[in-house]
Design a protein that fits this description.
This protein has about 80 residues and is mainly alpha-helical. The protein has one domain. It contains three helices and no strands. α1 crosses α2. The longest helix is centred in the middle third of the chain and has 29 residues.
Length: about 80
């Protein structure tokens, strides 16, 4: 895999080195995992926000009813 470089403050790099050493991993592996987790969190935040917008003011019971109706319609078409 081609490598890319990123710049971080010295204090951050030193902390990452300490954590990587304590966990028996490399700085690169730890940084990659941290970036992947942040990207996943951002994706979940975006998807959650979209779900909240779609839900609007519906109660849990109303959401369940809509889901049940969609499932029934899907089964009828199959």
């Amino acid at each position: 895999m081609p490598t890319k470089s990123i710049a971080v403050p010295d204090a951050v790099y030193e902390r990452v080195q300490q954590i990587a050493a304590a966990e028996g991993t490399t700085v690169d592996q730890l940084a990659t995992k941290a970036i992947e987790r942040d990207l996943a969190r951002r994706w979940l935040d975006r998807i959650g926000g979209e779900g909240d917008r779609r839900r609007g003011d519906m109660s849990d019971a109303e959401v369940e009813a809509v889901v049940e109706q969609a499932v029934q319609e899907s089964r009828t078409r199959s």
